[in-house]
Amino acid sequence: MRYDFDRIVDRRGTSSYKWDMLEEIFGSDDLLPMWVADMDFRSPPALIEALTERAKHGVFGYTARNDGFYQSFIDWVKVRHDWDIKRKWIIASPGVVPSIAIAVQAFTKPGEKVLLQTPVYYPFFDVIKNNNRELAVNELRYSNGRYEMDFDSLEKEIDDKTKLLILCSPHNPVGRVWTKDELKTLGEICLRKGVIVLSDEIHSDIVYSGSKHTPFAKISEELSEISITCMAPSKTFNIAGLETSLTIVPNSKLRKVFENRLYDQLFMRLGNIFGINATEMAYRHGKEWLDELLEYLERNRDYAVKYINENIPGIKPVKPEGTYLLWLDFRGLGMNDNEIRNLLLHRAKVALGHGPIFGKGGEGFQRLNFACPRTLLEKGLAKIEKAMRELRDG
Ligand SMILES: Cc1ncc(COP(=O)(O)O)c(C=O)c1O
Predict the structure, then answer these.
(1) Which atom of ligand 1 is nearest to the CA of 97?
(2) Does any ligand 1 atom lie closer than 6 A to the CB of residue 200?
(3) Do residue 359 and residue 280 come from a single domain?
């Protein structure tokens, strides 16, 4: 191993959302945070060095995105996902969720419907609700420990008011890396019904052995024409705080509408100097680091799944094919969601993602982030095990 993912980095007091907001969000500071989706690892050294050099320059004026920024991303997507994208298709923005909000505003009208497949990443709900659009839900099917899309009900759920589907691929929180066939079936339904597909592929670089990410827009020319794809270096290289993401819109009409909203109405034209720099450095020099990270994460995933299966009766882990998020099924315990939350927060003293906030199908589940040094993961799991044992023993 060239990179030290075992190293504990103290993140308290760094304005970390994950570590410094515990009191405000969970009501106690004395918790091990395993919730929001960032990692407790340092970013690739090449990226840190580049940002240090940039900071030493000392002038931080308005910053344009140079050719290197776009080319590094185009090359990354080609090598990593075998997808050829054109420079003019790419629109940079401060984040994937802001891009989704822009798409909702640009491609739907108030009162029209946006479709989600739940349980799913919860800010999607807020984007729909806060923009006065209607939420349509197609719940994922869960059987034999595996989640699948329910195409029959999806087809039924789409009506004349349904204009946009937000696809989470790979899927947060259930960890599925959708297959090409699944995506094709989904895409064909949307194509037939006139629904635009926003494919949130922020987790596409975090995929484990045996699975392969397929960009939705790569499947066919026709599907590419109804697609908006969101990607970012933020999950991959742990730079969410640098607020830089890339949206790919091959269809020129859709792109114009999106750009109009972003550039001409919201005036988000220029970028964050460190975000631009870090993105290029990471995409150019981060491959080796990411390959090692993926090995580390996969071992963490396997460790957590095995540990829970062997030591924590009543909790069933849903082994993820991608993402560093582990979806845990607590339903075997016969406890309600409040009781589960209280057990985790007050007895185990761990902060996890609370299932019900992920929408329909999230009840009875919790989401655990395993992107941390192994010792922290061991500590978190041991805390949950101990709390469960105490509960059983009365
Ligand atoms: C599926 C998904 N989309 C988007 C985001 C956040 O993206 P951003 O920080 O670029 O808005 C996350 C973060 O957890 C996520 O899991």
Answers:
(1) 11
(2) yes
(3) no
Residue 45 dihedral angles phi and psi, to the nearest 5°: -55, -40
Shared-domain flag, residues 238 and 140:
yes
Question: Is residue 394 over pLDDT 90?
Answer: no
Residue whose CA is at the smallest distance from ligand 1 atom 9: 95
Full domain range(s) for residue 198: 61-285
Whether 344 lines ligand 1, by a CB cut-off of 6 Å, is: no
Write out the two tokens for 344.
Answer: 């985790």
Residue 39 beta carbon below 6 angstroms from any ligand 1 atom: no
* pLDDT, tens digit (0-9, with 9 covering 90-100), for 283-308: 999 999 999 999 999 999 999 999 99
pLDDT tens-place string over residues 38-92: 999 999 999 999 999 999 999 999 999 999 999 999 999 999 999 999 999 999 9
Q: Which atom of ligand 1 is nearest to the CA of 95?
A: 10
C-alpha 206 – ligand 1 centre gap (Å) = 13
- Tell which one of 34, 125, 176, 202 to mutate to probe ligand 1, the residue whose CB is within 8 A of the most ligand atoms: 202
Supply the CATH number for residue 110's domain: 3.40.640.10
| H helix runs in the chain, sequence order | 17-20, 22-26, 45-57, 67-81, 96-107, 123-130, 151-157, 180-193, 221-225, 234-237, 252-259, 273-285, 287-311, 337-342, 374-393
**How many domains does the chain divide into?**
2
Which residue has a Cα nearest atom 14 of ligand 1?
A: 37
Show which of 285, 302, 331 is a domain's final residue.
285
Residues 94 and 198 in one domain: yes
Provide mean pLDDT across the span 238-243: 97
Distance CA 64, CA 66 (A): 6
Residues 156 and 89 in one domain: yes
